[in-house]
Amino acid sequence: MAIDADVEYKSGFILRPDQYYSPSYRISPFQTSDIATNLSIVKQNKHAKFVWDRFKNKEWRFTQTGKHAIALALSVLELTTESVVTVLTTSGNKYVSKCVTEEIDKVCSWSREFCEKTEAIFVIHEFGYPFRDLEKIRSYGLPIIEDACHAYFAETPNNDLGLIGDFILFSLPKAYPVQLGGILAFNPKYKVPKSDDMDPGLVDYLSSIMGFYGAQLDEFRNMRVANYLSLVQRFDTIGCRPWFELLENDVPGTFLFSPPEGANLTGMRQHGWDHGIECSIFYGEDAFFIPVHHRLKDSDLDYFLEVFKFFLNQ
């Protein structure tokens, strides 16, 4: 019996599969099997006491999500509706995720420029690439919030990620095989309340999982960089180039690349989704991103290449 006319078999991979037979590749390392694994980990009750060494002289809170961490940081800065939060990003691209802007909009206004009403700085370490000159923005003398949702494994050349800002926040699903969870670390001079709606069971759940994987974090970091470099080599063969220059301590949260000129990025995104690959457009730029996390194998990277090569060659 012939394969369905809409389905293609290429180099060992099935392209244009039935939607119910698609794989599932996420930006997060979470997989369905982690539901059972995490239940087993929580029962071991091995908490993540070691994690906080990186936040020197800071206190911290678990939050439900990275967005909750943003809201919590903003809530203690005593901003008014007349205040402005100036948003800086690694790339300087004018696009800012709604995850950030919607939380700021609940409190005050935001801008990509400094102005007389700027009362806080929000720095986004985009896609795991830390902001390139953190020390410089300290000179403004304003409260600094560092958004490191994609940069849990990364560091700056000066090893000051999370140390310059008054607040630093992370999204745990970007780093661990979990479905929710965030961290807000902060300067003790700020009185940050504990979240009333934070389930104590969730705190134990997140702490146990982070404790379980703690000894493997260096391995995860190295594997992400290796996967990134492998994707750079693979996608170079189809005319795609990495968007950022990779500095020594960068650990990409995604593989962000520039497709060939004229590529239909909207169609490319839908094609990726149809093949079970979480992906999207870096809006405002001719750039695109796909997963690069530490649980991906060479065969997964080969699949990504074959999927997008098929699209670009159509």
Summarize the structure.
This protein is an alpha/beta fold and 314 residues long. It contains eight helices and 13 strands. The protein has two domains: 8-32 and 217-312, Aspartate Aminotransferase, domain 1, CATH 3.90.1150.10; 43-214, Type I PLP-dependent aspartate aminotransferase-like (Major domain) (Aspartate Aminotransferase, domain 2, 3-Layer(aba) Sandwich), CATH 3.40.640.10.
What attributes characterize this protein structure?
alpha/beta; four-stranded antiparallel beta sheet; Aspartate Aminotransferase, domain 1; 8 helices; seven-stranded mixed beta sheet; 314 residues; single chain; globular; Aspartate Aminotransferase, domain 2; 2 domains
Textual characterization of the structure:
The protein is globular and about 60 Å long. With 314 residues, the chain is α/β, with parallel strands linked by helices. Strand 12 and strand 13 (288-290) form a beta hairpin. The protein has a 7-stranded mixed β-sheet with strand order 3-9-8-7-6-4-5. It has a 4-stranded antiparallel β-sheet with strand order 10-11-13-12, covered by helices on one side. It has 2 domains: 8-32 and 217-312, Aspartate Aminotransferase, domain 1 (Alpha-Beta Complex), CATH 3.90.1150.10; 43-214, Aspartate Aminotransferase, domain 2 (3-Layer(aba) Sandwich). The chain is built from 8 helices and 13 strands.
